[in-house]
Recover the amino acids of this structure.
């Protein structure tokens, strides 16, 4: 948005060079192609080409029963897959009118906030790598591993989790999961403080990031930005606070905002969000203890699979099992828009249902897709090396970009 | 939560546009109205500019295909959000299959650019006046609009996925 090169007719000018940045460039962390016109190291113009890993999720979703769409959402933002899973479950629950018990909500918040931390760890760590500091990234990866171990304990998988079911969780949390979460909170608090002391006042890092790719709130809103990058410009829009879902209204947390909207502010906002996420997890752990420890799903036999023992021995359970697996359950006709605060911004699900076994239309409002469209216009006039760290700080995930 | 209710919002909208806003519903608490393609940009820019409503945030543009509803086959759906009042509105415009032209919303929001390109890519909706209406996720030389209902999920001529290959 700034530092446009200005030339007069008397200046010595060389011709522009074209640089094909991507689709598989080691500095872009994903499948992104930008064809840049460069004047020396300054970008004169750029064109983004996306869609290299488009997998037609919206079309596939029209052919699958609701519970089989969850694994598709995993592969949107695969750095924080549980948020997508939960967002989808909550969308279907809103359509079906299922009220989940408080304990389910709190457990969901633990999982969602853990994955938000995992996502921010990667983003801020990689931003450090791109500015030349590998150490922070490596230190933080250890704690992402700890988060993945918690996911493993809860659902058995790590990256593409398929965690939870419509109505709750597929199985209850065990003691090890809670134990690991508590241990994570203790260790991660120390690590985050260390990470911040590595970067926040690091001269090289601050020089590289401060004032780079600064965006005004007006521009950010006009481009429909959401998430940490919008909040870094000073707009306090957070879905968790504005339209609380999943009992976020029971929690005490703050929405950190920046002032200048540059790469440095985005970094600080994400760090602060990780601290707020830890606060949320702590409160959720305390609240879970007050609830009945045996509740981990809503009582909706029509949509939630019965336990296997009952399927083998109980007629009613067998019928429900069959109906759910074959996608024969009745669903209300209607349309619903539900959004959750994903790690990158407002992740929305627009679901139109005609009462059949699969959605009539499902549209994902993918924050990466919408956030990324300003990338080429805002790169104009930037140095190539600044454009690289700008892309890191936008945290565009190729899976979510291309759906 | 929200500072104005759906009823108040609807009153403002109908006071401004009267009969041009039809089919008012509020499924799951989200006010949904239908308008015409002649009115849509007026509606959107009025919502954005109105000092009380301030719908400054375009959440999403997408489309839907109803091949069996004659004359209203393709619907373009806008989700707009007023951050100040914390209220959303969904606006729909239905177009006939043979005449899928609708003015672009890029004049109101920069962010509409890619959302409209995606809608064009998958439904073939022609956003007139759009600065750069090209395919975005699919390959440029694709000839079909894959999210239309008549387009099958898989190529029916494929022979490598026939059941007898799997002993069925």
């Amino acid at each position: 948005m700034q530092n446009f090169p200005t030339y007069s007719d008397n200046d010595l000018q060389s011709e522009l060079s074209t640089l094909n940045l991507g689709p598989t460039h080691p500095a872009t962390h994903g499948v992104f192609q930008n064809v840049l016109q460069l004047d020396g190291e300054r970008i004169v113009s750029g064109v983004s080409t996306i869609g290299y890993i488009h997998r037609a999720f919206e079309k596939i979703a029209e052919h699958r029963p609701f519970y089989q769409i969850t694994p598709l959402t995993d592969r949107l933002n695969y750095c924080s897959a549980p948020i997508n899973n939960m967002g989808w479950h909550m969308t279907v629950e809103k359509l079906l009118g299922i009220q989940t018990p408080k304990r389910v909500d709190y457990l969901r918040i633990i999982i969602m906030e853990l994955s938000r931390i995992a996502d921010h760890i990667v983003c801020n760590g990689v931003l450090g790598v791109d500015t030349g500091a590998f150490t922070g990234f490596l230190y933080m990866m250890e704690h992402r591993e700890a988060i993945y171990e918690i996911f493993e304990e809860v659902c058995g998988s790590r990256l593409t989790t398929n965690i939870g079911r419509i109505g709750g969780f597929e199985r209850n949390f065990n003691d090890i999961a809670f134990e690991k979460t508590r241990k994570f909170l203790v260790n991660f608090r120390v690590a985050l403080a260390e990470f911040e002391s590595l970067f926040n006042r690091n001269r090289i890092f601050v020089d590289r990031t401060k004032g780079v790719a600064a965006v005004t709130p007006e521009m950010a809103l006009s481009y429909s930005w959401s998430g940490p990058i919008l909040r870094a410009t000073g707009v306090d829009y957070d879905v968790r606070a504005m339209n609380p879902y999943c009992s976020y209204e029971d929690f005490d947390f703050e929405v950190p905002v920046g002032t200048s909207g540059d790469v440095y502010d985005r970094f600080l906002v994400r760090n602060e969000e990780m601290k707020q996420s830890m606060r949320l997890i702590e409160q959720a752990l305390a609240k879970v203890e007050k609830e009945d420890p045996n509740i981990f799903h809503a009582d909706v036999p029509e949509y939630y699979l019965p336990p296997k023992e009952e399927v083998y021995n109980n007629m009613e359970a067998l019928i429900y099992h069959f109906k759910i697996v074959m996608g024969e359950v009745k669903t209300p006709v209607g349309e619903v828009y539900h959004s959750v605060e994903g790690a990158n911004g407002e992740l929305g699900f627009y679901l139109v249902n005609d009462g059949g076994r699969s959605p009539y239309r499902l549209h994902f409002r993918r924050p990466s897709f919408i956030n990324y469209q300003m990338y080429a216009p805002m790169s104009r006039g930037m140095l190539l090396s600044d454009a690289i760290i700008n892309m890191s700080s936008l945290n565009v995930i190729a899976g979510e970009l291309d759906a | 939560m929200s500072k104005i209710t759906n009823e108040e919002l609807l009153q403002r909208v109908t006071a401004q546009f009267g009969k041009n806003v039809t089919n008012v519903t509020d499924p799951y608490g989200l006010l949904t109205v239908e308008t015409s393609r002649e009115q849509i940009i007026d509606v959107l820019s009025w919502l954005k500019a109105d000092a009380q409503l301030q719908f400054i945030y375009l959440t999403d543009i997408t489309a839907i295909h109803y091949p069996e509803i004659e004359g209203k086959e393709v619907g373009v759906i806008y989700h707009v959000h007023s951050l100040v009042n914390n209220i959303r509105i969904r606006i729909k415009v239905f177009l006939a299959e043979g005449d899928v032209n609708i003015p672009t919303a890029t004049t109101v929001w920069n962010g509409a650019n890619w959302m409209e390109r995606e809608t064009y890519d998958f439904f073939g909706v022609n956003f007139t006046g759009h600065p750069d209406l090209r395919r975005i996720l699919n390959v440029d030389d694709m000839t079909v609009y894959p999210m239309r209902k008549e387009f099958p999920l898989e190529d029916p001529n494929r022979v490598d996925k026939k059941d007898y290959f799997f002993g069925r």
In short: Residues 13 and 249 of chain A are 59 Å apart (CA to CA).
